[in-house]
Amino acid sequence: MSPFAALALSAFVVVGDGIPQPLTAAQADAARGRAIVVNRQQGLCLLCHSGPFAEVREQGNLASNLQGAGTRWTAAQLRLRVADARRLDPNALMPSLHRLPPQDAAQRVAAPWRGLPVLDAQQVEDVVAFLQTLT
Fold first, then answer.
1. How far is CA 75 from CA 91, 125, 129, in A?
2. Overall pTM surpassing 0.85 (yes/no)
3. 31-41 pLDDT tens trace
4. Phi, psi dihedrals of residue 50, rounded to the nearest 5°
5. Domain extents in the chain
């Protein structure tokens, strides 16, 4: 079985500027979320963002500093920003991590990842749980 088989999209409902309901019934884990955020092969967050991650030498400066994210946004707002940021701004630099790329962009995705989101539902919830700890 492909290691990517578990990366399926979860349906969600956007209300205002957030996704109020978690994407999965499983408990979110902030430690797993932090590991995703700092991992350049998985979350890719620190390519654009910076934050309180002393062990990560090079951090981005294209997007907001993640320090204080848990104060600036609710869990619902964070969930939408991680899962489908382009719903808020179609021209945003922030990729939608729990959506599929548009058809015209799919050809630029390596074959093993085509038709799959960057993060699965549990990973989105873990990242949201971690971001909520950044006050």
1. 23, 9, 8
2. yes
3. 999 999 999 88
4. -125, 175
5. 39-99+118-133
